[in-house]
Structure formats: C-alpha cells, structure tokens
C-alpha cells in the first residue's frame, strides 16, 4: 500500500508515501486494515491509499471503526528518508530490484550537511536485515557518518566504522544505491564518499 495520508484507530496513524502490510478490508474496498510499524493495526481510508499486490484474497472485515472527529492529515514528507530495497520487483537497481523511501522520523533542518548526516546515521543505526518487508543491504556493517562538506561543487562525505563488503555484484549495486540515493535527496551535486580514508565506491567492487 502506498500514498496513505492518514489512518484511524484511537491514536494510531500511518504516514503518506509509505508502504504497510494489508491485513484485510471491507467488501467495497472503502477501508483497509493495515499493520503499523509499531506492530499495531490501523484503518486507512480507501480514498487516500493505493493498494498493490493480490489483495483479492485478503480477509473481508465487516466493521471498521468510525472516527469520532476528522483525522489530522500528517505531512506527506515527514522529514529525511533513507533507501531500502524491494527485491526482485523488475526495477533498475541491483539485479532487478526497486528502491523504497523509508522515513525514520528525522526532520529536515534545512542545513545540507546536518541533513545528510541525519539521514545516513539513521540508515547506519538500523541493523535489521528487513524493515517492513524491505531489504536493508547495509545491515551487517557498523558505520557512522562523521562529516559532510561541500568542496568545489562536490559533496564530500566522511564515514567511519566497520564495513562488511558485498558478496556479489547484485549486493554491491544495492549498497551503492542505498547510500548514494540517500545522500542525493538533498542535492544533485556529485557525492564523493570516503570510509576510513578509502573511497567507498572502491570498497564496493567485488573481486572476480
């Protein structure tokens, strides 16, 4: 499911432009029951969501909750995001994968350096292999974004920590997309990323 502006069940809400697992829905598809990130459930109005996948086999739920007041619409872009990978979806990333934006709840500060640091460190602090069903290629590494500078029209990012190199070309391309597209949300300027004084791009090369 994507594009949900809000959901409703007591104080549970879902964010826009985010995918959530479907648990069921009404016969007329006017309301959908989704699983939230916190493991709870939330009702989402069918007029403000788009549903993907084979949802015809989902359980039919007979009685959605009725909101007691008009729900508050959350911002469509809650802040910075980082990239996760949707495997084997026919996309251009890796070996037929797609990219998914994941919003960790870090708000945009309006400062290029601080925002890139916030996005990367949110990514690197997540050591789960899968997040809401989407793959996190960097989950094995223990990294930290230390500094970001704009030098001569280029964004220079310095990382530190321990990096687990990719096992194959597919994994290398997933890692590259995850890190570079996370950085590029703030600037179209070319990013040069170092890890412990080595170019991260060089470390992503898989030996043949």
Please, could you describe this protein's structure?
This protein has 208 residues and is α+β, with helices and mostly antiparallel strands. It has two domains: 7-57, no CATH class; 82-203, no CATH class. It is built from three helices and twelve strands. It is elongated, with a radius of gyration of 19 Å. The chain starts with 6 loop residues before the first strand and ends in a 5-residue tail after the last helix. Mean pLDDT is 80; it is low at 1-13 and 64-77.
Helix content: 10-25%
Taken as a percent bin, the fraction of beta residues is 25-35%
Total domains = 2
Give the tally of β-strands: 12
Task: Name the structural class.
Answer: alpha+beta
Radius of gyration: 19 Å
Distance N terminus to C terminus? 39 Å
Low-pLDDT regions: 1-13, 64-77
Mean pLDDT: 80
The run of helices and strands is: EEEEEEHEEEEHEEH
Question: How do the strands line up in the largest sheet?
Answer: 1-4-3-2
User: Biggest β-sheet: count, sense, barrel?
Assistant: 4 strands, antiparallel
Write down the overall geometry. elongated
Output the number of helix runs. Answer: 3
